[in-house]
Design brief:
The structure is a homodimer. By secondary structure, chain A is mainly beta. Chain A has one domain: Roll (Pnp Oxidase, Chain A). Chain A has two helices and 15 strands. In chain A, strands 3-2-6-9-10-5-4 form a seven-stranded antiparallel beta sheet. A three-stranded antiparallel beta sheet of chain A has the order 1-13-14, with no helix packed on it. In chain A, a hairpin with a 2-residue loop joins strand 11 and strand 12. The longest helix of chain A is centred in the N-terminal third of the chain and has 9 residues. The radius of gyration of chain A is 15 Å and the shape is globular. Chains A and B meet through strand 1, strand 4, strand 5, helix 2 and strand 9 of A and strand 1, strand 4, strand 5, helix 2 and strand 9 of B. Strand 14 of chain A pairs antiparallel with strand 15 of chain B.
């Protein structure tokens, strides 16, 4: 009944040195502001699991509605072979050997600092050692909802945010 | 620069046995499907931190736009004194002594199974031992976007989801 916490944002997890793989993950959270630490739960069945174990790194890329098709492929197909069905491209990262996603509005480069097994997933904890982002999509540190950040509703259903802000 | 992962869903964390406290948390994720395990990052400065340590329990309540005012108070004021500024009410939970929120569309009762310090927050990991939910808001395990689930954009700005589904 994890659906009770949905919709959740969908992110792309890039991993691998020799070969670059990319998968979609909704089970991701911020853990600390300073230092900036995040965590993502990944099933040991995923190819990405093995690549993160091997490399001790991963990159979190922030997709928008524009690349929803790729987010779907990355979440449903396995191994880097899936890339032939996708249109995104990779660029060099700054502080890790794992690549970043050119078409993402932000890329967070993470070095693995902890991993914990919880039930059917492993929680990979990474310190964000560098980030790149589109200054228009995050002006003054505030995400601009015009950029249509993706959220996963259920199965093959995604949504995005109203462009209306409710001020408290 | 944790803002790069925003907007994020906002949830209410209920804690305490003798006295009930409630705070707002965005830094929450699912960790495992079976068993159903979730985790939430909470600053040691928060009153909730002490209550979860003492009781070994917490409840995650899912708020909607209807109680945004309370979500804001719960996130910005401290100690159970804040409740006098709020309109939500508490009901008995089923499997934990910590109360649930009557006005939430779902309540997930958690027993603490792990805690880890990451930077400036502690990550509390709980097994969901029971849940209650509004069957209209989650028909066939799919959240109905008509219910206007809350997402935090920045500071005092919140939003909710488009009622449009993009099918892959």
């Amino acid at each position: 009944m994890y659906h009770l916490l949905y919709p959740l944002r969908s992110y792309l997890i890039v991993s691998g040195h020799q070969k670059t793989n990319v998968m979609t993950a909704d089970w991701l959270t911020i853990l600390s502001k300073e230092p900036f630490i995040i965590g993502v739960a990944i099933s040991p069945k995923r190819y990405t699991y093995r690549l993160i174990k091997e490399s001790g790194e991963f990159v979190v890329a922030v997709p928008t509605l524009e690349i929803l098709g790729d987010v779907w492929v990355a979440g449903t197909k396995s191994t880097p072979d899936k890339l032939k069905y996708m249109k995104i491209s990779f660029i060099e990262s700054e502080k890790v050997k794992t690549k970043s996603v050119k078409e993402a509005v932000a890329n967070l480069e993470c070095k693995l600092i902890d991993e914990r097994n919880y039930g059917d997933h492993t929680f990979f904890v990474g310190e964000v050692v560098h980030f790149m982002y589109d200054g228009e999509a995050f002006k003054n540190m505030v995400p601009d909802l015009k950029y249509k950040f993706l959220a996963h509703v259920a199965m093959n259903e995604f949504t995005t945010f109203e462009e209306k802000i409710y001020e408290c």
